[in-house]
Amino acid sequence: MKLYGIPNCNTVKKARAWLAENGVEMPFHDFKKHGVSAELLQPWLQQAGWEKLLNRQGTTWRQLPGETKATVGDEASALRLMLEKPSVIKRPVLELDGKITLGFDEARYQSLFGK
After folding, report:
1. Interval 18-36: pLDDT, tens
2. pLDDT band at 115, cuts 50/70/90?
3. Which residues on adjacent β-strands are paired with residue 101?
4. What pLDDT, in 10s, does the model give residues 66-108?
5. Which domains are present in the chain?
6. How far is residue 48's CA from residue 96's CA, in Å, rounded to a whole number?
7. CB environment 44-76: b (16+ within 10 A), e (fewer)
8. What is the distance between the terminal CA atoms of the chain, rounded to a whole angstrom?
9. Is 66 one of the annotated active-site residues of the chain?
10. Catalytic residue (one of 3, 9, 15, 19)
11. What is the torsional sign of CA 57, 5, 60, 72?
12. Is the pLDDT of residue 114 over 90?
């Protein structure tokens, strides 16, 4: 059980606040401080697919040069970009019992934690 993301991300802040308000203690893995590895990302890619795991709505993606964006067309290229720029990973990533949930949805968290 772990929450992954970047502390200054608004969606991560909402998830962490919800967890705290509901008395759920959850270790937090900061992508910027602790990084990411292919070993961490591979199971996520298998579960969610690279298109869902890659956040194309975020600032990091929008600031990438067009040439870089154009090279991301499959899992291998998406993985390379996520390893190079972890901020392009959809967040938060909640890992619970070997399964992941991307983003924060209060109803989903309530269901997961029986709150």
Report:
1. 999 999 999 999 999 999 9
2. confident
3. 94
4. 999 999 999 999 999 999 999 999 999 999 999 999 999 999 9
5. 2-113 (3.40.30.10)
6. 14
7. bbeebebeebbbeebeebeebeeeeeeebeebe
8. 17
9. no
10. 9
11. negative
12. no
